[in-house]
Amino acid sequence: MQRAEDKTILVVDDEPNVREYLQTVLEDAGFNVVTAGDGAEALEIIKQQAPDFISLDLIMPKKSGHRLLHELRRNRQWARIPVLIVTAHAQDELGKGDLEDLLNRGVMSGPGTYLEKPVNPLTYVRSIQRALGIEETEQATSKINLKQELQESLQNASPEALRKALEALKKSGD
Questions:
Q1: 131 and 112 Cβ atoms separated by less than 8 Å
Q2: Under 8 Å CB-to-CB from 46, ≥6 apart: which residues?
Q3: What distance in Å separates the CA atoms of residue 122 and residue 73, rounded to the nearest whole number?
Q4: pLDDT, tens digit, for every residue of 109-135?
Q5: Which letter does DSSP use for residue 87 in this model?
Q6: Which residue intervals of 7-111 are DSSP H helices?
Q7: What are the CA-CA distances from residue 71 to residues 58, 85, 133, 154, 163 (Å)?
Q8: Backbone phi, then psi, for 76, in 5-degree steps?
């Protein structure tokens, strides 16, 4: 059986906070993660060491995900790398045409070929696990769910509750 820790995922997104978020989610699930800020940077990384999977933003400066994916599919070695498009532009004029082009031309096919931002962390990880034939582990799922619950709680917490939670965390680390 395939294991997450044996797989390297390339996360390509021009937004640093999104890139970091996706990287953290994948690392929590046990994956090795490499990141790139655009398609040109991603291509250089792929040339050095092809990843096992690519999480790809569609709309980026320099080289879009659309252009990068077409280049990957023209290369015999890189064409086999599974790709998941992660975009906020699946339904608008910025990305809808590019996404439809990829789907209609058969560059991408089947369920789980793209996710719309904001992505649910568990859905994101499970999409990649399925594509790579990796069994979901209870530990990874639990960690992702706990982090998501914590983030949601933090957004709604009062400053006093946050202070108390931070103090409790500091004490538990001692």
A1: yes
A2: 10, 54, 72, 78, 81
A3: 28
A4: 444 577 888 888 888 999 999 889 998
A5: E
A6: 16-28, 39-48, 65-74, 96-104
A7: 14, 15, 25, 42, 50
A8: -55, -40
Q: What is the mean pLDDT of the chain?
A: 83
As a dihedral over the C-alpha atoms of residue 136, residue 142, residue 144, residue 150, rounded to 10 degrees, the angle is 170
Distance CA 101, CA 166 (A): 48
Rounded CA separation 93/56 (Å): 18
pLDDT tens digit string along 88-99? 755 656 656 565
Dihedral angle over CA of 116, 118, 124, 128, nearest 10: 50
pTM comes to: 0.76
Whether 73 and 43 have beta carbons less than 8 Å apart is answered as no
